[in-house]
């Protein structure tokens, strides 16, 4: 089904609470792991539908953050998503504490129970008011950025649409663009600082209420880091400082020489060649079509996935003036459909949704019902897999970078 045709109905959370309560009573009365697992399948169906409705509302809100209907829906879910999250964790706790856990582990996977343990450390009913405030603050921040109006030579742009000028081949253009970009944040410094201050205090308080010294342990649990922790990250940071920073310094020196500059500044950060960065050629529609052809050449599996995405309007990647900045990949469980959200701006970043965003959805689509819970992976793992797909795509990625009129 095409995304524009997907129906949307606001989730009835009172009804949802009743359904969870009924499932919970049946789970407690079950006489075997088989019975409990059958009930758990109902949990999948129920939560999949809730997540589908919430995600449709979120995407449509992000596509146009001035749309009053979906702004109201997002506000509704900002208030109720923490309630839903607590219902989910309460159910997962039943699995974790079940007397038939060995059978459930066999059916769902032991990794699922590691993730449940982390979930129980990250959510509690006493956090609901703070989680609601956190959601509101995040939405306020996104609205400020999405509705930016920057006058670029008479054309009104938002932050995403200004991006190509920040890395323009002309240093004068870059300087002017960066002054305009920075000026926006200076103009809104008080609002943004207030949001940041409130978020830090909010999250610190959440951590304290969960018995932690600060937000860090809670943040790690919420990122589902089930096989590494804070000490591992500290060692990784030491390795970055020891090994990667010197390499980056060498690469930047090479880039400085290639750009014929006496020294590099922040306005040169994203520029690699003196005659301009390599960028995809064509209109956004042509770039999408080239990406589709690229994945059709790559393999039958990637062709099937990419054609499904394009035929069902599961890319919203064109930059628009009231669209949320940035990008993400999300998932619509009822339709077994990933959705890729981005802001094309005429730079090499436009190729990234073709090469990276494809990965996560393809993996989710391959999961059967038994694998849903342990299908959850943390963001770094997803990014690594996405980078791997970029390498697989390298033989055919030239189709996105045709020769331009000037020979480049």
Q: How does this model look, in words?
A:
By secondary structure, the chain is mainly α. Among the domains are: about 5-120; about 230-275, no CATH class; about 285-400, no CATH class. It has 15 helices and five strands. The protein has helices spanning about 15-30, 35-65, 70-95, 100-110, 110-120, 130-145, 160-165, 170-185, 190-210, 215-220, 230-260, 285-300, 300-310, 350-365, 380-395; strands spanning about 150, 155, 315-320, 330, 335-345. The strands form two sheets. It has a three-stranded mixed sheet, with helices on both faces. It has a two-stranded antiparallel sheet with strand order 1-2. It starts with 12 loop residues before the first helix and ends in a 15-residue tail after the last helix. The model is unreliable at about 355-370 and about 405-408 (pLDDT under 50).
Question: What does the secondary structure layout of this molecule look like, with pairings?
Answer:
Blueprint: H1 13-29, H2 33-63, H3 68-97, H4 101-108, H5 110-120, H6 128-146, E1 150-152, E2 155-157, H7 159-166, H8 171-187, H9 189-209, H10 216-222, H11 230-258, H12 284-298, H13 300-311, E3 315-318, E4 328-332, E5 337-344, H14 352-365, H15 379-393
Parallel strand pairs: 3-5
Antiparallel strand pairs: 1-2, 4-5
Helix pairs in contact: 1-2, 1-3, 2-3, 2-4, 3-5, 3-6, 6-9, 7-8, 12-13, 14-15
